[in-house]
Amino acid sequence: MSGQALLFMLFSWCFVASLTTFCFTRLFMGKKKGSKSDRCLKEDR
């Protein structure tokens, strides 16, 4: 039980950390380059 809880906590922490890093990077790039990054992302998709 404690092992599963620890694993779940670790997974949740990694997910939150990666999500926060992604949002921070996107915000930082958006401030630097403006709407150019959004256009590039749409073209790639």
Write the layout of secondary structure elements.
Elements: H1 2-33, H2 36-44
Short recap of the structure:
With 45 residues, the chain is mainly α. Helix content is 91%, strand content 0%.
**Inertia-based shape:** elongated
- What's the number of domains? 1
**What fraction of residues sit in β-strands?**
under 5%
User: Gyration radius, to the nearest Å?
Assistant: 16 Å
Largest sheet: none
Q: What is the SS-derived class?
A: mainly alpha
| Low-confidence regions | none
Percent in helix: over 70%
- Helical segment tally? 2
**How many beta-strand elements?**
0
Secondary-structure element string: HH
Provide structural commentary:
The structure is a single chain. With 45 residues, this protein is mainly alpha-helical. It has one domain (2-44). Helix content is 91%, strand content 0%. The chain is built from two helices and no strands. The protein has helices spanning 2-33, 36-44. It starts with a helix and ends with a helix.
